[in-house]
Amino acid sequence: MSDAPALSVLRLSKCFGERVALDDVSFEIGHGEIFGLLGPNGAGKTTTVRTLGTLLSPTSGSAVITGIALAPENGVAIRSRISIMPESPGLYLRLSVAENLEAFAELYQVPDARSRIERALRAVHLIDRANDACGTLSKGLRQRAALGRALLSDPEVLFLDEPTSGLDPVAARDVHELIDELRHRGVTIVLTTHRLDEAERLCDRVAILNTTLRALGRPDELRERLFSKTLSVRTVAPLPDPGAVFDACPAVDAWREVGTASYSLVVSDSIVAPPAVARALVSAGADVLSLGESHHSLEDVYLELIDQGRRPTP
Amino acid sequence: MMKPSTRRVRAIFRKELREYRRTGSIVGTMAVVPLIFIIAPLARAFALPVSAAATLRHENLLVYLMAIPAIVPATLAAYSVVGERQQGTLEPILTTPLRREEFLLGKALASFIPSVVVAYAVFALFLACVELFAQPVIASALVRGPELLAQLAFTPLLAGWSIWAGIAISTRSNDVRAAQQLAGLASLPPIAITSLISYNVIHPTLRLVLGFGIALLLLNRVGWRITSKAFDRERLVTGSRSRGERQT
Q1: Are B165 and B171 in contact (CB under 8 A)?
Q2: Which CATH number fits domain A1-81+155-216: 3.40.50.20, 3.30.70.240, 3.40.50.300, 3.40.50.1100?
Q3: Which of A82, A100, A240, B141 could form a disulfide linkage to B53, CB 3.0–4.6 angstroms apart?
């Protein structure tokens, strides 16, 4: 595999008339990476996918997809190497699952279409429903059929646009498991989602988008960048003098009481601080219920960044 | 321009035919409308007395049936793009390596072949009924070589015009019903001409027939070009027009 990224986007912008949908967005995605595009409605996620999928022409900027420059004359070559699963499965409801896949196998001109279709159906666990009309399938099964269709051509880059949108938790979990399986097969995936738990669970890196790119990195990197490390301490009874306990601890920068017998400590070193705090609590005769690092979710990161965008600049 | 892939054109064509087969109303409408169309000329052929044969030789009753290839594909073609768009299947298909020419050819063939087959079959049925049940003198006055030849030659041309007009309307339309109504209107001009010939308002001469044929050929070619230009991926996906960027 070459060192070149699977996908590279440089200063990409897209306007629809006066409306700016995407503004000066740049990022790179490595081979085999699962990359999340997060953002509120209208943030430009689907526009990004459609532009990189050659459905829309960029207003400015450039991109290289699987080594091919995004240009009108390269549309067919790019579309041959990628696959896009749009938010709506878009299956022919009167045709069977196998017939839907057969039509797409022909459009991708895949060799040995029959075995490819079977392999794709096995991958999405739909082989026993191959002859059922898509109109008779549940929403979750249709989503799986659409994912199977997207896998037919063995794409180098797979774009999944809100793959679990509108699915119940069980169906969503099934889709997550399928994406996890694709990760093990080394498929590069661009996943757009509203669901931050989904992004946190599946994505190696995420980009938070709100017309412009707000942040880019691994979920834990973003957390570290935005939030200071904190320890949560709970004791059986309130400490008579918490300042005397926490102020003397190394690597504890600040503390505050967050409830009855519950404390939040801002720490500069999450390796040094916890044992020191534990020792200080024991020395103070406190009965410790719990002591652990507070975990900021990707949702906290997301909300912080989106809120930053909404706050008026002073 | 690269040559369209026959495999991809065939994929669209086969998919369309499968959908027709699964949709009883499409097949039913395709067969019933032309059958209704032959009732009036058949009734006239059966009712005519032997003495009317001489008059019939100067009429062009069969030309009336040329409306069938113009009518049958109009609704199919009008549905072809906007229908896919409305049922959400257009975007997935546009994300494949399919070129617009391949998509349009597949769609056009899927309207053209069934329509021409139906038109020829209904015409054959009409001829069989006339030969079997009309007075032999009436049958020989009605079924004439030049008219048969015209029917054979003009059926694909009329169907072609109706299809390109229907698909062009479909690519620019946002609503299936509006597209079907407009496509119906677009198929009227050739029907008007064949009807005027059939009712002897226009007298068919060789020059007129050749002119009509060449005009239809040109309209088919222009129709293909207009349809191909009207097919804008960006507009079809987002509803807003791309700013003249080239697309594949």
Answers
A1: no
A2: 3.40.50.300
A3: B141
Q: Is residue B1 in some structural domain?
A: no
Residue B25: per-residue pLDDT: 81
Of A57, A74, A91, the CB nearest to B242: A57
Q: What is the ipTM of this complex?
A: 0.86
The one-letter code for the residue type at B28 is G
Find out whether A124 and A181 touch, Cβ atoms under 8 Å: no
- The whole-angstrom distance between A206's CA and the closest CA on chain B is 24
Q: Does domain A228-295 have CATH number 3.20.20.80?
A: no
Closest-CA residue of chain A to B241? A16
**Start and end residues for every CATH 3.30.2130.10 domain found in chain A:** 228-295
How many distinct structural domains can be found in chain B? 1
DSSP β-ladder status, A60-65 and A68-69: antiparallel
pLDDT given at position B242: 57
Other beta carbons less than 10 A from residue A244's beta carbon: 11
pLDDT tens profile A191-237: 998 777 888 889 999 999 989 998 899 887 777 776 667 889 999 99
Query: What letter represents residue A260's amino acid?
Result: T
- Inter-CA distances, A14 with A26, A47, B89, B91, Å: 13, 8, 24, 19
- Mean pLDDT split into 10-residue runs, chain B, 248 residues: 87 95 83 86 85 79 86 92 94 96 96 94 92 88 85 92 95 92 90 83 84 92 92 87 52
B83 contacts in chain A (CB < 8 Å): none
Closest by Cβ to A92, choosing from B15, B91, B246: B15
Task: List, in sequence order, every residue forming a beta bridge with A229; answer none if it has no partner.
Answer: A267
User: Higher model confidence: residue A156 or residue B1?
Assistant: A156
Does the structure show a pLDDT above 80 at A3? Answer: no
